[in-house]
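Case study 2.
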Amino acid sequence: MPELPRTEVHNERVVYDGQPWLRVTRHEITTPDGARRSHHAIRLNPVASTVVVDDQGRALLMRRHRWIVDQVGYETPGGIIDPGEDPQTCARRELLEETGFEVGAFHLAAILEPMPGLVETPHYVYIADEPRQVAEPTDEEEAAQLVWMPLTDTPELLATGQLLGAGTAVGMLSALALHTRCLHLPHPAQQPVVPGHQTP
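Prediction:
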């Protein structure tokens, strides 16, 4: 394939440092059409999340309120990767803290940038199986209701805006595609997770 024209970045200046959450930078750039102009970029930390799938074709989701967008919806467990931390290690840690679950094998489903035109925030999305509840959730800040959600509900949840975040959406679609290829999915009902009990 022919080489694509690239935007040239001449300099970078930090205009807001909100670490450990975000930085805003200002750049002087020349775009492929030859125009020189200023552009801002938002730099966020990398994130890891996990779609945990049980043997009934259901995903472990957190139902919660996100105050910034004032929406109630469903998310996969996950969080910010600590400096020097492996993404999968982060995914396991966040899963245990937020849900009290451990899992078997991890499969890297996606590495994505949700808004590459303005925001840098690498997302590592995993799919895991063999869930087992070993503890109570310990992350009180991330308080949520845990629900076993059928993967077959993914299209409806997406169409009605109930999946919060690009990582959750991509993870659920990836899990649905993977499990559809491997087996005929049942159509179980949504079921809340009872704290301290094993997956039914």
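Helices lie at 87-99, 154-159, 166-182.
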